[in-house]
Structures are given as structure tokens and as C-alpha cells.
Amino acid sequence: MDLAGKKIVLGLTGGVACYKAAMLSRDLGRAGASVQVVMTQAATQFITAVTMQALTGNTVYTDQWDARMENNMPHINLTRDADAVVIVPCSTDFISKLAHGACDDLLSTLCVARPAHVPLMVAPAMNVEMWQNPATQRNVRQLREDGIVLLGPDAGAQACGEMGEGRMLEPAQLLEEIVAAFQPKLLAGRRVLLTAGPTFEPIDPVRGITNLSSGKMGYAVARAAREAGAEVTLVSGPTALDAPYGVRRIDVQTAQQMHDAVMANVAGQDLFVAVAAVADWRVANASTQKLKKNGENDVPHLEFAQNPDILAGVAALPHRPYCVGFAAESENLEQYGAAKRVRKNIPLLVGNIGHQTFGRDDNALMLFDEQGHTSLPRADKQTLARQLVREIARRMAS
Ligand code: C5P
To answer: Where, in this chain's numbering, is CTP bound (predicted)?
Structure first.
């Protein structure tokens, strides 16, 4: 679980987006965190403390003078063992309070009273004009200067019916940002390019050849790289997955398109990770019209042509990034993996242990480098991806 053992103070201020804070509180709990909710009076106009208590299983605090705390110092007690304070939603007024260090209710006092090592993250949620108002922007600059992390805001449809910047991030995006905040920034300032998913090679306008890759491993590595502080571009074949938050995704279908997208974006990259299950062959005589079945024994005659090897192409560039390849072998991984790394001319090759990795949520990896091979035991793909990023960052730094 991504937030196992973490204690998070979740502060709610006044805004329609409070209902999303309810969903986030549940998601944080499912990710292993214990969640302590604190609400401003304005927040209680939008959602009740009862709802938040039921969702988190913890008493909710709304008042600085709450007699339930024996020493009557909730602003101190609630933050001393916290791993992070997260304000969702964060109103215009609360941003202003934070910018000035105001302490006129429990939540604002608690933010000022928190120990310096406890990060404060805020998810602004407000009307576009309120967000763009010079006073708000001035306050936001102050927050950044003070080391407060801003999560969003996004742009889009707003509860008031207007459109624009100020819309709060979705709970799933906020969860990704909170998880990311706890990851070491091993790839800070690095640029990372990845491929993921299957490719789709058309036979005709409605049919094609593909494979069982779900894209889960590649997306997990992309997310882990971004969590580690990298600027990430993901060239993805067709998958059912959402792009990890903050990752630039370029959608492609065929191996040729994947190759072209990689080559167009490879300049200036520090790391290239080829996770995609790229089709080795495409149909050379693909039809521009849907093939018709004429009679009982009529079968189409497909001719194949070889696709470009994207990884080999990047590895052959004069100013190549650090290159990592993947291998899905059905047998003799130790032997084939080592040979494939040398043949592909790359410093690191990652083998999937067992060929039943496609579509699954877990995996086990074997890493081949110049020194030999090491194993990363079976775990969920996100955990493995974080371990892999650690291994890659260490090798890039040496
Ligand atoms: O040779 P093989 O297909 O087993 O190599 C797998 C590795 O090469 C993976 O990293 C895959 O993403 C990459 N690859 C590629 N372009 C291809 C075929 C494989 O980038 N056409």
C-alpha cells in the first residue's frame, strides 16, 4: 500500500469541492494512511463532520476550543506525529490566510503550528476570476516561496457554470500527488522518455494484429519516474489506462508510429525505457477497405514486413540517453537476457520472470547489466517500478 503507516491531516475549507475531499479521504485510507480530518466552519456548510468521521474512522475537529482534547491544544497535538498536512479544497480565503500566517481558526493555526519538517500541500478550488485575481496570484507566489506545495488547480467546467482555471484536481490525481510527495527525488531535473503498451498493426480498416500487453508495467515505470522528480514523456500504444498525473502521453497505434514519436522526442532525454511490447512484423499488404469473405474457403493472404527496432535505433544514436530495455522470454531468461542486453547494446535489460506477466497487476523482474544479474522479487507492478527507478538512478549516477 502506497501510504502504509502515513498519518495525514486532511483539512477542508469552504467550497463545493468538499465532496471530492470525502472521496479522497476514503482513497487515502485505502492506500494505507490514517486520516485526521479538520474542517473550517465554512467547510461544514458544504459537508458534515459526520460524513468525514464515518469515512475516516477518526474524530473530526472543527473548533480550536474543542474540549475533547485534554490539554485543549488541538493545533499542537494534531500535527506532532503527522507526515503531511493536506488542504482539500483550499479556498481563496484560506490561501490568503496561509500567505499571511493568520491563525484565526483551528485549521489555519494548525498550519502555522506544524513542525517545519511536516509538508503542507494545498489543492486550490475556486472560480476562475477569484483564481486569476492579482491578490490571489500574489498570495500563491508567497505560498510557493514559503515551500507550500500547490496541487493544481486544473482548468475546466466550474460549479458556478463558468469555465477556466481554478477547478480542483480530481481525487485520483490528488492521491497520486500525495503519494509522489513521499518518494525520494532520485531523478530530479532528469528527462525521461518511455514506450508502453502493445502496438496494433492493421490488416484492414477494422482488423489488426496486436498482443496481450496491458501497458500496466510501462505506465507504472512512467509514474515512478515522475514521482522521482523527472519530466516524463510516455509514448503509448492502445491501452485502457489513464495517463499518470503529470506525465505527457503521446498516443500511437503502430510500431512505425511509435518509432517516429520516439525519434521526434528523444533529443535532450537523459533516460529511455522501452517497455512496450512492439510487434516485430506489420502487414505489408494491409487493405484500405474492409476485406470481404467470399465463400466458404476464402482466406486472406497476408504478407509481413519487419518493423523498426525502436530500442536499437535509440541505442545507436550518437548522443544517446541511458537506455533500458525489457524482455519477455518464455524460457531460459538468465541466458537469453544476458545475451539480449549485449545484442541490443544497452547498459541495462529488465527481464520479466515468467511469461505470464501480460495484464497482471504483479510481476517479478531480473536485471541484467555488465556485472551480471540481480532479481527483484514478485510484487505489485508499482512497487517494482519504484525499485527499478531506484536501480536505474543509481546506475545513471555512477
Ligand atoms: O528483441 P525483443 O523484442 O525481445 O526486445 C524487447 C525490447 O526491445 C523491449 O524493450 C521492447 O520495447 C524493445 N523493442 C523495440 N522495438 C521493436 C521491438 C522491441 O523498441 N521493434
So the answer is: 280, 290, 308-311, 326, 340, 344
pLDDT tens profile 239-274: 999 999 999 999 999 999 999 999 999 999 999 999
Q: How far is the CA of 309 from the centre of ligand 1 (A)?
A: 6
Q: How far apart are CA 132 and CA 136, in angstroms?
A: 7
- DSSP SS3 for 137: helix
Ligand 1 pocket test, pick from 210, 259, 280, 309 with the greatest ligand atom count within 8 Å of Cβ, gives 309
pLDDT at 355 > cutoff 70: no
Q: Can you tell me the distance from the alpha carbon of 52 to that of 378, in angstroms, rounded to the nearest whole number?
A: 36
195: confidence class by pLDDT, cuts 50, 70, 90: very high
Whole-number Å distance between alpha carbons of 153 and 108 = 20
Residue with cell 491563525: 103
Tell me the pairing of strands 372-380 and 362-369. Answer: antiparallel
Output the CA 87–ligand 1 centroid distance in Å.
44
Rounded to 5 degrees, φ, ψ at 368 are: -110, 125
Residue type, 183: Q
**Pocket (CB within 6 angstroms of ligand 1):** 195, 255, 274-276, 278, 307, 309-311, 325-327
Protein residue with least CA distance to atom 6, ligand 1: 327
Residues 6+ apart with CB under 8 A from 114: 79, 82, 85, 120
Residue pair 267/318 in contact (Cβ under 8 Å)? The answer is no
User: From the annotation, which residues make up the binding site for CTP?
Assistant: 280, 290, 308-311, 326, 340, 344
Look at residue 298 in the predicted model and tell me its pLDDT: 84
Element spanning 343, H or E = helix 333-344
The pTM assigned to this predicted structure is 0.90
- Tell me the best of 311, 317, 358 to mutate to test the pocket of ligand 1, counting ligand atoms within 8 Å of each CB and taking the most: 311
Distance 308 CA to ligand 1 centre (A): 9
| Domains (range + CATH), the chain | 7-181 (3.40.50.1950), 191-397 (3.40.50.10300)
Residues belonging to the active site:
160
Report the relative pairing of strands 149-150 and 154-157 from DSSP bridges: unpaired
